[in-house]
Amino acid sequence: MKNESDKKEALRRWRLILGPYGDDALADAAGAGQGKKGALLNGEDVRRDRVLHYLYGREYKDRQADADGREGGAGASRMSVPHWLGQVRRLFPRSTVETLQRHALERYEMTALLTDPEVLEKATPSVELVRTLISFRSLLPPASMTAARKVIRAVVRELEEKLARKVRNAIQGPRCRHRHGGRPGIHNLDWKTTIRRNIRHFQPSEGTLVPEHLYFFQRSKRRLPWDIFILVDQSGSMLDSVIHSAVLAAIFYGLSSLRARLILFDTQVVDLTDRVDDPVEVLLGVQLGGGTDIGSALEYASGLVRNPGRTIVVLISDFYEGGRPGHMEAVVRRLSDAGVTLLGLAALDDRAEPDYNRHAAQQLADIGMEIGAMTPDRLAEWVGNVMAGK
Q1: Is the CB of residue 158 less than 8 Å from the CB of residue 128?
Q2: How far is 76 from 194, CA to CA, in rounded Å?
Q3: What are phi and psi of 316, to 5 degrees?
Q4: Residue 234: left (phi > 0), alpha (psi -120 to 50), or beta?
Q5: pLDDT in tens, 30-67
Q6: What is the mean pLDDT of residues 344-360?
Q7: For a surface tag, which of 40, 304, 377, 389 has the fewest beta carbons within 10 Å of its beta carbon?
Q8: 293 falls in which pLDDT band (50, 70, 90)?
């Protein structure tokens, strides 16, 4: 019966949530003997239970042996971290894998996930794991750095693939499908025209088409390039924004219509423009913590402005200023009066749900800086609109 089936499924899920200590609690609801010793689980669920208990059984590490004389988690405790991580990846979907990895590192301090190269090789790349690698970089032995770079590079590549086309379209304008002669590049290639006009070069014996001429779409023209300064707060709460900023700055840097500079700051200002095309190296150079001197970062950028009317300054920060009183506001007012376009972002990530100093942000808004929180593709759209005069 459906009701009975639903009941068993609910009990099965509760048993996985509660772990081995849920057997007795679920015994009465399950029926005679069905809640004892994991009887609610079978097959893959038994393996899932062991994997979950290996991690969450740490909550009960002070418990004494249960009524059967069995130590809670004794079986699971014999599992090695690499084996545990391999089982996690095999038994759970990616979203759950990322959650379990995050809990292992942040809640239970399983630093073997970072310090063991074998474990890092098996880890599922995610923004959360990159955030943790950056936060605990000082714990990484030299032997783990190669694996750490591999994880960070995989996440950077995934973000670039997700954003690159949207950013190009937002900044460079739409492709002009009725005109050819654009810059060579796979993203501008007119496949249909290229195939149609080269069909006579098809080689039946090889089963391939060897085009004599490639046709590329033109894009809506922008005249002179714009300068964009991306200033990123390195405080710990801004780490997700740092990751996305590094990737977005690299994409901006590759566009002919933009001259991008990437500047990180805490109480010191670090210009990483010479590394902006390699987000992995940028992220491995991040120094988290310390104070925040937004005014000094803005002052540094101000000294590099050459054409205010074609310059955008994007400040990414929670606006908790620790520098000289009034300095931040004075530089913003000076830049605004000069004609620089100013944007202050309390967050640049997939969620755009920031916690920030609203009073300071409002002060900046009152003197010419637009304030908001954006996803990376929304920022690209905003920049494109500014460049187009919208």
Answers
A1: no
A2: 59
A3: -110, 110
A4: alpha
A5: 664 454 555 677 778 888 888 888 888 877 765 544 43
A6: 89
A7: 389
A8: very high
Ramachandran angles phi, psi of 227, nearest 5°: -100, 135
- Kindly state the DSSP code that residue 92 receives in the 8-state scheme: S
Distance CA 76, CA 39 (A): 18
Average pLDDT over residues 258-279: 95
Under 8 Å between Cβ of 312 and 345: no
Residue 240 near residue 127, CB atoms below 8 Å: yes
- H or E element, residue 271: strand 269-271
DSSP H helices, 218-309, are 239-253, 279-284, 294-302
Nearest to 111 by CA among 86, 87, 141, 90: 141
CB atoms within 10 A of CB 230: 28
Q: Read off the tokens for 57.
A: 């059984």
What domains can be seen in the chain, in order of their start residue?
A: 2-64+71-118 (no CATH), 180-218 (no CATH), 226-387 (3.40.50.410)
Determine the Cα–Cα distance for residues 28 and 39; give it in Å rounded to an integer. Answer: 13
Q: Is 43 helix (H, G, I), strand (E, B) or coil?
A: coil
Token pair 């920049």 is found at 383
Q: How far is CA 380 from the centre of its chain?
A: 16
pLDDT, averaged across the chain: 82
